[in-house]
Design brief:
The protein is of the alpha/beta class. 51% of the residues lie in helices and 13% in strands. The structure holds guanosine-5'-triphosphate and magnesium ion.
Length: 319
């Protein structure tokens, strides 16, 4: 048992989370983050209540204004009477402390609103990594009845692509003065964005970034019936452009629902999750020691006495 002695059991926590109790929701996300041994039971308890929330991923370079945009989106969604959860995923750190503090400060205006839940989560060290941890946390929030789950991830390395894979809609943020136009092409974010937002539109150079991005989006190969990602501008600090962004997100989700894209994405997501779990289990089952263990086999391959394919066969036979 991973829960604190005397604390509520898993089924009770799930019941409380379903009723929207923030402490219970937070405890469940912690169980996911810490990769508790009870995860299989937890996921079984949640399964029937999931698939309702709309998951919107936001990614972009550090400092581009993701948290500010998220905060403004929360305000706009609350005005539409939605319950909103925010999950800030930090893929690089094993601790969620730093990110949590920064986001808490920025999102303070929502801290006391019972219709809003804000949480940071670290995923390094989680078995199966982000591909498993993020969907599990999203499922907790989904089952807790949030209409929209906003997932913020800093765009470094592979993380933005991985987070885009978890979302129903992905918003890529850029800002002037960060060499972003070129960066966008390099990092492959053009492929993952369903919507692009050039934030900090109050700053010089924003128009140029919008123009450059529109050109790049127009150049991308797509069929006439495919979604053409809009390039919007916003100034998240004062809320400019946020309603427009939400309108476009709605339009995208409608398109994705009707075209079947949304169900294809959700199926692909489930597939990756199951696959990651299987691979993690296989890896955990591989023997490292002994005559047919990975250590010994690696020595033989490195020493030229065995080829890697034969070593793989032996390892699989031994597992
Ligand atoms: N001028 C201007 N500044 C902005 C705007 N939006 C955000 N900022 C500022 O940009 C800085 C970074 O904003 P954040 O929202 O923390 O950016 P972030 O992308 O979440 O940053 P990380 O999570 O650290 O990657 C803050 O000082 C914001 O006040 C904007 O529209 N205009
Ligand atoms: Mg942030």
């Amino acid at each position: 048992m991973t829960q604190a002695a005397g604390g509520p059991g898993l089924a009770e926590l799930v019941e409380q989370a379903r009723a929207g109790r923030p402490r219970a929701i937070g405890r469940l996300v912690s169980l996911v983050e810490n990769h508790t041994r009870e995860l299989p039971q937890l996921m079984a308890l949640l399964a029937a209540d999931t698939g309702r929330a709309r998951v919107i991923g936001l990614t972009g370079a550090p400092g581009v204004g993701k948290s500010t945009t998220v905060t403004a989106l929360v305000t706009a969604l609350r005005a539409r009477d939605q319950r909103v959860a925010v999950l800030a995923v930090d893929p690089s750190s094993p601790f969620s402390g730093g990110a949590l503090l920064g986001d808490r400060v920025r999102m303070q205006e929502h801290a006391l609103d019972p219709g809003v839940f804000i949480r940071s989560m670290a995923t390094r060290g989680h078995l199966g990594g982000l591909a498993v941890a993020a969907p599990q946390a999203i499922r907790v929030l989904d089952a807790a009845g949030f209409d929209t789950v906003l997932v913020e991830t800093v765009g470094v390395g592979q993380s933005e692509v991985e987070v885009a894979e978890q979302a129903d809609a992905t918003v890529v943020l850029l800002a002037p003065g960060m060499g972003d136009g070129i960066q966008a092409a390099k990092a492959g974010v053009l492929e993952i964005g369903d919507l692009f937002v050039v934030n900090k539109a109050d700053r010089d150079g924003a128009h140029a970034v919008v123009r450059e991005l529109r050109t790049m989006v127009a150049l991308a190969q797509r069929a006439p019936e495919d979604w053409k990602p809009p390039v919007l501008s916003a100034s998240a600090v004062d809320g400019t452009g946020i309603d427009g962004l939400l309108t476009e997100v709605d339009r995208f989700v409608d398109h994705a629902t009707v075209s079947g894209l949304l169900s294809r994405r959700r199926r692909a997501r489930a597939r990756r999750e199951v696959e990651s779990l299987v691979l993690a289990r296989l890896r955990a089952a591989l023997p490292t020691r002994g005559r047919a263990g990975l250590d010994r086999l690696a020595d033989e391959v490195a020493g030229g006495r065995l080829d890697a394919y034969a070593a793989a066969d032996r390892l699989l036979d031994a597992s």
